Amino acid sequence: MNQAAPHSLTLPYLMLSGGNGAVLLIIAAFVVLMVLLTVFWIWMLVDVATADFPKSDDKIVWVLIVILTGWVGAIAYYLVQRPKKVRSKIGPEW
Questions:
Q1: Burial class of residue 56 (count of CB atoms within 10 Å of its CB; 0-12, 13-18, 19+)
Q2: By residue range, what is the domain housing residue 51?
């Protein structure tokens, strides 16, 4: 007698039967993560647009990077340019 795996172990069955809620928890976590990344992307896009750069070309390049690469470009801007902006506001003693 060859028995198949119980239905409770397959993903479609968990999604249809309610299972233990693990799938819904994963989906909810994914949605929350996407919302947070979108908010972060918008924040960095506004920051780039309002920032003062030494050269005007830098602003254009960073705006394009953030827009075209999404949250990856926003993270790159945050790690590369944002510390310079914060240091310039704090002053040279930092």
A1: exposed
A2: 7-90
* Tally of domains within the chain: 1
What Å distances lie between residue 89 and 15, 24, 38, 83, 84, CA to CA?
Answer: 51, 44, 26, 10, 9
Residue 12 lies in a domain: yes
Q: How far is CA 1 from CA 8, 22, 48, 67, 92, in A?
A: 20, 32, 66, 58, 78
Q: Residue 31, exposed/middle/buried by CB under 10 A (0-12, 13-18, 19+)?
A: exposed
Structure tokens at 88: 């310039």
pLDDT in tens, the chain (94 residues): 556 555 555 555 555 555 567 778 888 899 999 999 999 999 999 999 998 888 879 999 999 999 999 999 999 999 998 777 666 666 555 4
Total-model pTM: 0.67
Is 1 inside a domain boundary? no
Indicate the SS3 state at residue 62. helix
